[in-house]
Amino acid sequence: MNRTDRLYALVEELRAVAPRPRSARWLAARFEVDARTIRRDIGALQESGVPIYPERGRRGGYVLDRAYTLPPVNITPREAIAAAVALETMADTPFLDDARSALYKLLAVMSPSDVEAARRVADRIHLGTPDRPATPARQVLRTAGDAVVRRTVLAIEYVDRHGHASRRLIEPVELLGAGHQWYLVGWCRLRQEVRGFRLDRMQRASATDEVAPPRPVGAAWRSRFELATAPLNLPGMLSS
After folding, report:
1. More confident residue, 177 or 154
2. Which domain holds residue 95?
3. What is the layout of strands, in order, in the sheet containing 181-188?
4. Where's the WYL domain (predicted)?
């Protein structure tokens, strides 16, 4: 049994016996792996949001919250493949890790037979690596994305187009994306005005504990980038 099928089966096993626990040793024997592998699998499920918790004691083990049910969705193999292909286009964005997590959750709610069907199709799809300009480090991408979501002030080391280096505190307001290029728009405390910063020119970026105050940025300011931007379009049920 491959890992994806085992993770799905682990949830099903724990749900079937809930609220009784299953020990790592019992589960290891059930799925013919060692207890360390089971603990890693349980940790991965917990990180993805599955409410599994340890129950201490001689008869303890892992317990799944009885209120938990897998989402009532039916992901087809083609939909899983489409999500995986879309994921490959996100390598230069601040949301790569989150996209991978979402893909894992999609696979987790698919039946083992559909996962295997998707895997067979995936083996016959090969994506080339296009020529790309220099891209920001993964740490910078993730930190910038987190800062916009959480509105935390960023401390950055930045090199401008003339090669001049500086250290700044930025109050993040927006992310602008165009192809493989991403900009962080925010209030620059060094210049005391709204500025745009190319993420590939950030040498370092680290979050502070300070929450940035709200600062509006108008469309006129965005036009400096000469980008035709539009808000991210989420389905109405998510944006209502």
Report:
1. 154
2. 77-122
3. 193-198, 181-188, 165-178, 152-159, 202-211
4. 140-205
